[in-house]
Amino acid sequence: MVSHYSVLKNEVLNFFEKIETNNKYIVDATLGGGGHSKAILEKFPDIKIIGIDKDDFALNYAKERLKDFKDRIIFVKSPFKNIDDVLKELKIEKVAGILFDFGVSNFQLKLSRGFSFQREEALDMRMDTSQDLDAYYVVNYYQEWQLEKILREYGEEKFAKKIAKEIIKRRQQKKIETTKELAEIVYNIYPPKLRHGRIHPATRTFQAIRIEVNNELEEIEVGVKKSIDLLDRGGILQAISFHSLEDRIVKIIFKEAKKLKKIEVLTKKPITPSKEEINENPPSRSAKLRVAKRI
Fold first, then answer.
1. Helices (H) and strands (E) in the chain — how many of each?
2. Are residue 149 and residue 26 in the same domain, yes or no?
3. Which residue, of 206, 211, 272, 291, has the fewest CB within 10 Å?
4. Domain that holds residue 129
5. Residue 8 in contact with residue 278, Cβ under 8 Å?
6. Residue 186 and residue 254 share a domain
7. What was the pLDDT predicted at 215?
8. 203 plus 260 within the same structural domain
């Protein structure tokens, strides 16, 4: 099985200890490899999990990993923005807790899905492999202004205009088919003195295209907003973000819900991983956890 690391696991468990309702359901809205769910099921023997993911591989992986808890977990294939429909279908009105982890799982990076530029892979980046839109279409058929817009807005890429222009130029010669081809285009656009920083020059471009392919930011906004109303009083909502755009959306939703006296925000500032966790799992360094309690 592919290795999987659950970010901020202890912090997530500690906040779920603050649940103040007799409701026994927690929704793991981004099930992934099932690491957080496994920890929750082990720590809270009365809790039942509703595990949601739109990635078939993730669901199958989690089913195998959590087979010892099969009587206490319900697996559902769905985008998490449809969390209300999922619960309605299960005839569950309210839940005690909801967890979101917006990170890309290890197996999505390692299973030739085109998420990573470390290897030569087809441009794909779909979390739900049954959907039509993929990275190949975005890179080869989006107009220049569309490419520039998503690179600037979703990748916060300062060379967005130059990269978009170069993609158009290259694809007129031949279609851009692999992750390596795309990464090389971006790498060559960057000035030589900026090519060897802490992150690869292509990181922001790949992030932007992945967000576009999977409609990630809209899904976060819709899913997190709906979740507040699905919590029982005393229920806990947790959201782990990995870049500023995700974190900003969660922060704004919490702020608005607090004004409406729907929630108490339990994290004045987002919780970040300890030095020990970052040493053990370097990609966790950018994780931020925000937590709210339904009132």
1. 13, 7
2. no
3. 272
4. 112-214
5. no
6. no
7. 93
8. no
pLDDT digits (tens, 9 = 90+) for 126-174: 988 889 999 999 999 999 999 999 999 999 999 999 999 999 999 999 9
Tokens of 210: 């992945």
pLDDT value at residue 120: 86
Distance CA 103, CA 267 (A): 20
For the stretch 282-289, contacts whose Cβ atoms lie closer than 8 Å and that sit 24 or more positions apart, written own/partner, are 283/5, 283/103, 284/5, 284/7, 284/8, 286/242, 286/243, 287/7, 287/8, 287/103, 287/240, 287/241, 287/242, 288/240, 288/241, 288/242, 288/247, 289/8, 289/11, 289/12, 289/238, 289/239, 289/240, 289/241
The 10 Å CB-count burial string (b at 16+, else e) for 221-244 is bbbbebbbebbbebbbbbbbbbbe
Give me the amino acid identity at 143: Q
In a domain, 225, yes or no: yes
Q: What are phi and psi of 252, to 5 degrees?
A: -65, -45
d(CA 150, CA 30) in angstroms, rounded, equals: 24
Residue 100: closest CA among 255, 254, 206: 254
Q: Supply the CATH number for residue 288's domain.
A: 3.40.50.150
Pair (43, 186) in one structural domain? no
Is 2 a member of any domain? no
Grouping H, G, I as helix, E, B as strand and the rest as coil, residue 23 is: coil
Query: Do the domain assignments include residue 4?
Result: no
User: How many domains in the chain?
Assistant: 2
- Same domain? 124 vs 201: yes
Residue 279 CB coordination number (10 Å): 11
Q: Give the whole-angstrom CA distance, residue 118 versus residue 183.
A: 9
Do 128 and 267 have their domain in common? Answer: no
Low-confidence ranges of the chain (pLDDT < 70): 1-5, 105-114
DSSP 96: E
